[in-house]
């Protein structure tokens, strides 16, 4: 049997520990992957002088699939976001952020099942046209939305809803104020919605969406939105199920995909065997589904669910008193 090669970027801080956990679980589930390790972030800066070395980009390009731990971009001028750079370099236009309730988490809600489909390369978040005046008294940035980009992400959302038998897609915008950029996105979202009459379509202004997500999260199924709004809303959704430690992310392009833990590198607990690896484990499940390895994905998800629901060797943020290795071992035993 030919092995699928996966590029693995352990990342910074707690990244290497939680990535090791995910690899143990993937191996135990019988995924038969071969791993090519690569550096990015502070680890790469220390060894190569670059945050994102060409060798790492080449490995991602070669294998087309990558699993990534959290990365640290140094604060200050001259340092570009590594995640934004990866998305632009590989044209990873769709960011998929699912949140799913697990009994046993510290959450205000039950039965949350929402996917945010975020445009990943355009809009205000992309950092285009950033200028600061010479005297530092004025700053500006540019937001660019293209019809092709808006159509691509809206089609991705509806196709996802169709493939997963979901019932509704909500397009979130600010077209009442941002009449050009958000207006174009909404116009295209309406056009795409007409192609999928079997799926309920809804549109909502972003501030109203924030309120409704907190008050009535059960009314949402698939959310599709622009880059900056998607960044904010997907974190809000993570808060509905217990925080960023319970939220994975997938960055999908035409032929390349990067799967990641969406939380930070938490350098204060790095190497202390305290981190909850659930986010990157769930990201590895997204990776398996992308690779059409549904059986292994379901087996791992069921094992994670059982550990969290039972409270068996869970980490502190899940109400337990155990560390990364104990939590991982509990999952391995169920597999």
Automatic annotation (TrEMBL):
<dbReference type="InterPro" id="IPR024084">
    <property type="entry name" value="IsoPropMal-DH-like_dom"/>
</dbReference>
<protein>
    <submittedName>
        <fullName>Isocitrate dehydrogenase</fullName>
        <ecNumber>1.1.1.41</ecNumber>
    </submittedName>
</protein>
<dbReference type="GO" id="GO:0051287">
    <property type="term" value="F:NAD binding"/>
</dbReference>
<dbReference type="Pfam" id="PF00180">
    <property type="entry name" value="Iso_dh"/>
</dbReference>
<dbReference type="GO" id="GO:0004449">
    <property type="term" value="F:isocitrate dehydrogenase (NAD+) activity"/>
</dbReference>
<dbReference type="GO" id="GO:0006102">
    <property type="term" value="P:isocitrate metabolic process"/>
</dbReference>
<feature type="domain" description="Isopropylmalate dehydrogenase-like">
    <location>
        <begin position="5"/>
        <end position="331"/>
    </location>
</feature>
<keyword id="KW-0560">Oxidoreductase</keyword>
<dbReference type="InterPro" id="IPR019818">
    <property type="entry name" value="IsoCit/isopropylmalate_DH_CS"/>
</dbReference>
<dbReference type="GO" id="GO:0000287">
    <property type="term" value="F:magnesium ion binding"/>
</dbReference>
<dbReference type="GO" id="GO:0006099">
    <property type="term" value="P:tricarboxylic acid cycle"/>
</dbReference>
<comment type="similarity">
    <text>Belongs to the isocitrate and isopropylmalate dehydrogenases family.</text>
</comment>
């Amino acid at each position: 049997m030919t092995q699928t090669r996966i590029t693995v970027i352990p990342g910074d801080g707690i990244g290497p520990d939680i990535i090791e956990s995910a690899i143990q679980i993937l191996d135990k589930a019988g995924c038969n992957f071969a791993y090519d390790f690569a550096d990015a972030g502070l680890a790469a800066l220390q060894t190569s002088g670059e945050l994102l070395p060409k060798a790492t980009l080449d490995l991602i390009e070669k294998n087309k699939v990558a699993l990534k731990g959290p990365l640290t971009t140094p604060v200050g001028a001259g340092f570009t976001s590594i995640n934004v750079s990866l998305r632009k370099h590989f044209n990873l236009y769709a960011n998929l952020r699912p949140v799913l309730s697990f009994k046993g988490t510290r959450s205000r809600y039950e039965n949350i099942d929402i996917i945010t489909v975020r445009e990943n390369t355009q809009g205000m978040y992309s950092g285009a046209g950033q200028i600061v005046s010479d005297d530092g008294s004025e700053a500006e940035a540019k937001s660019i939305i293209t019809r092709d980009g808006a159509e691509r992400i809206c089609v991705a959302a509806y196709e996802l809803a169709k493939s997963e038998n979901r019932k509704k897609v909500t397009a979130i915008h600010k077209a009442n104020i941002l009449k050009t950029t958000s207006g174009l996105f909404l116009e295209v979202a309406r056009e795409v919605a007409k192609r999928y009459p079997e799926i309920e379509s809804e549109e909502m202004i972003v501030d109203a969406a924030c309120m409704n997500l907190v008050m009535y999260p059960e009314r949402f199924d698939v959310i599709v939105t622009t880059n900056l709004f998607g960044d904010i809303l997907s974190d809000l959704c993570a808060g509905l199920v217990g925080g960023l430690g319970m939220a994975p992310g997938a960055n999908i392009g035409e032929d390349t995909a990067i799967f990641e833990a969406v939380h930070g590198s938490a350098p204060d607990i790095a190497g202390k065997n305290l981190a909850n690896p659930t986010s990157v484990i769930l990201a590895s499940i997204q990776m398996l589904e992308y690779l059409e390895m549904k059986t292994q994905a379901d087996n791992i998800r069921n094992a994670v669910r059982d550990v969290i629901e039972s409270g068996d060797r869970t980490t502190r943020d899940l109400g337990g008193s155990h560390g990364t290795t104990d939590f991982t071992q509990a999952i391995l035993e169920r597999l």
